[in-house]
Amino acid sequence: MRQLSEAELVLKALTSRNIDIIATINGDAPESIAELARILGRSQSNVSRSLVPLVKLGIISLEGGRPKRPRLCRGSICLDLSEIQSSRVSGKVPRPDTS
């Protein structure tokens, strides 16, 4: 299995639920993951799991001791979409049947 490019990893990480996390961190500046989870109405363990790819990509950081404060690290992201490769085996794009 091929490794995903950085652009693919970012796009994969930007689910609607993770975008909600980013928007909440940016708008509400929660003091902990527990507070972030409370604001989002999700369990702390679920939010913690969702934060992992965002932290790995440097979009979010977890600052301080305990409790960790989630902070937005990057105000913008520039993606090189030419890095994205097709996962189809044939590499051919199917054409719609026009008959």
Question: Can you give a write-up of this model?
Answer:
Helix content is 42%, strand content 8%. It has a two-stranded antiparallel sheet. It has 99 residues and is mainly alpha-helical. It starts with 5 loop residues before the first helix and ends in a 27-residue tail after the last strand. It has a domain at 6-73: Orthogonal Bundle (Arc Repressor Mutant, subunit A), CATH 1.10.10. The protein has 4 helices and 2 strands; from the N terminus they run H-H-H-H-E-E. InterPro entries: WH-like_DNA-bd_sf, WH_DNA-bd_sf. This is ArsR family transcriptional regulator. It comes from Chenggangzhangella methanolivorans.
Number of helices: 4
CATH-scheme architecture of the domain at 6-73: Orthogonal Bundle
Major sheet description: 2 strands, antiparallel
Superfamily (CATH H level) name of the domain at 6-73: Winged helix-like DNA-binding domain superfamily/Winged helix DNA-binding domain
What is the residue-mean pLDDT, rounded to a whole number? 86
Helix content: 40-55%
Provide the β-strand percentage band.
5-15%
Strands side by side in the biggest sheet: 1-2
Backbone structural class:
mainly alpha
Low-confidence stretches: none
